[in-house]
Specification:
Layout lengths: L8 H14 L2 H10 L4 E2 H7 L5 H13 L3 E6 L5 E6 L1 H35 L1
């Protein structure tokens, strides 16, 4: 398959559309957490440190809408809801992990660049 040319305006718009959701702080953490397996809402809430219930609900809805996870409701009292990555969501783990590793590897370089920039602009 021929590589996608991200310099093409149409491809940039497509990439931006997809990345806009998965590129936010909480979506990455939720996808990574669900990469370990199916979880209930309360388990996700505990696993994703600092996320509010409202933000978790919003994030899960967006990820479900875009096809990255499935939501299964069990007819129990109280209702039980499980979240699990779809095939698309599982495929997303590889580039997300690679980006995360790149960020860890290059964090010091980014901090140095910021300090250098700030010193010049103060």
């Amino acid at each position: 398959m021929k590589p996608t040319n991200l310099h093409d305006t149409g491809h940039c718009q497509i990439a931006n559309d997809v990345i806009s959701l998965v590129g936010d702080k909480w979506s990455i953490q939720v996808v990574s957490t669900l990469g370990k397996g199916r979880l209930r809402f309360s388990e996700l809430k505990r696993a994703v440190e600092g996320i509010s219930q409202k933000m978790l609900t919003t994030t899960l809805r967006g990820l479900e809408r875009d096809g990255y996870l499935t939501r299964t409701v069990f007819p129990t009292v109280p209702p039980r809801v499980d979240y699990e990555l779809t095939e698309l969501g599982s495929e997303l783990l590889e580039p997300v992990s690679a980006l995360g590793q790149w960020a860890v590897t290059n964090h010091a370089r980014v901090l140095d660049a910021r300090r250098s920039y700030d010193a010049r602009t103060d």
